[in-house]
Amino acid sequence: MHKIKNIFQHINAESKIKKEPLYPWSLEKRYKISKNVLGTGSFGVVKECTDKCTGIKYALKIINKKAIRGKEQMLNSELDVLKKVNHPHIVKLHDLIETKKAVYIITDLASGGELFNHLIKKGSYTEKDASNLVKQILEGVAYLHDHEIVHRDLKPENLLFSDKSDHSNLMITDFGLSKILKKHNDILMTACGTPGYVAPEVLRQTGHGKPVDMWSIGVIMYTLLCGYTPFGGEDQAALFDSILSGVYYFEEEYWSEISDYAKDLIDKMMTYDADKRITVHDALKHPWFHMANNINLLNNVRTNFPARATLKKAINVVQGVTRLRKTSTRQVNINNDKKSDINYADISNLDLQITSMSRNDNFIGSLKSFISPFPKISEGTTDPIVIEEDWYSNKNAILV
Question: What is the pTM of this model?
Fold first, then answer.
């Protein structure tokens, strides 16, 4: 009996030695980690944690190093930006812990949830309310642009409310695709973004910079006012074709009571020529923010913006939310200089990196290579490709 007891003691001792703690001691020493999962992604999970000293709740993003192997640039980009920024409309980094197996990023909690999920629960939502939201987004982006940061993946999923109150603060998050410019006039060549919100110059590979964020905000503003996005298609190729055409409509059924000031700002933010597109600081001076009306938009937004829970892929979100409007009485004027010899019928071979690091599944799309060579994705590959670096050029240089 004594020998049997010793055997069990030996087994128990071995099991205790082999068992690894769920979290590093340096993390658990300061924070109480909740079992509440806020979100999951291809690279890890986001949980809620509480500072043991202050009682303040934070978001804990746990990045598995094995899962992100080969895509470390996305993590580095996000951390580079988070370490540099401090603004009320941008999610803030509070702590960072790294082990051999994982990276633990502690940021603002943003418990109010994603932009549209918050809006559709409201009792009232007016054009004036929408103008306040757009202004907050622009103020956050103005701070980024002033610090030479291009977000490159602005979309409703990356806009979170700080809490669930009616007047909650809106914050920009997810900087996995962001780029800190080395020089003010740097041109970025890596094709990245999310279907439906990506600017045409990104798809055309003619080089892009800060104006891509303004285009994305224009798409977000359009969606905030009617519940559907301005560009759509039956599949990804048709969606990109729609964006490349630059044509969108203000359908009478949903836009008749929305102010002309709102439509004017959308037109300026989605000007096809990036060089002529309104800047973030000029957008903040637009009269819409003082002239927006109090028409209730909630019914239209609820009708046109379906629940996001069943739409996992970004492309499915676009397909489920949008319809290309063809019966409008007001068509946007398109610049003549956007016309080219692009073959819109065949857009199947250019590999476009369209990934998102936190809440949404990663996704890769494809287009025809119109101008410059681009890294190819091996046939049958399903994992996202992360381009290690952007190619830089002065505006006067020839892009290759």
Answer: 0.75
